[in-house]
Amino acid sequence: MNDDGRSLAMQSDSPASLIVELVKWIEAQGLRLTDIHMKRPTLEDVFIELTGRRLRE
Question: pLDDT digits over 33-56, tens only?
Answer without folding.
Answer: 889 988 898 999 889 889 988 766
